[in-house]
Amino acid sequence: MSQEFLSDHDLDLIFRNARSQNKWQDKPVSEVTLRAVYDLLRWGPTSANCSPARFLFVTTPAAKEKLAACVSATNAPKVLSAPVTAIIGYDTKFYDRIPELFPHNPGARDWFAGNAALATETAFRNSSLQGAYLIIAARSLGLDCGPMSGFDADKVNEAFFADGQIKANFICGLGYGDSAGVFPRLPRLSFTDACSIA
């Protein structure tokens, strides 16, 4: 099978020209689009295919108000104006799905079920990966993203995940960005600053 590559246009769309959004156009995002985003991101790899991320798409005015009360003063307007804000959470009992998701080794459930520290570390790390896949998938489908970490996780958990099984990792606005709210492009570390080869 020949090697295939994304075009420069595609790479610009997903990475080089994509920007974190702070303001949003008044343009809705359909449930069909949200389902399409999830249908892409779910194929990204996680350890032992554990897939711990759980996504709550906040879209209604009431839910936006509830979430805005849990975030920093600078992030509240973003939550209220974004067509969608995704709460990327993780299922603390993700391992109960391992027999289904990792059927060639269903006993892998026990790696995590008896080790709370390993389960939490695995859930947080892999839900972070899945949150990144969300951003890539959304950008691939023409959406803009505004990831945020300025929020009170305990308040978000209490407001949206009251049973305690799911915990918030980070939140991300989704929609069609307003370029008036984009900051000037900030620098990134060079290969030599950030990388080494052993």
Automatic annotation (TrEMBL):
Keywords: Flavoprotein, FMN, NAD, NADP, Oxidoreductase
Family matches, as CDD domains: RutE-like
Ranges annotated as spanning the membrane: none
UniProt domain Nitroreductase: residue ranges: 18-176
PANTHER family: MALONIC SEMIALDEHYDE REDUCTASE RUTE-RELATED
Family annotation (HAMAP family): Oxidoreductase_RutE_HadB (MF_01204)
Stated name of the protein: Putative NADH dehydrogenase/NAD(P)H nitroreductase NYP16_12030
Organism: Govanella unica
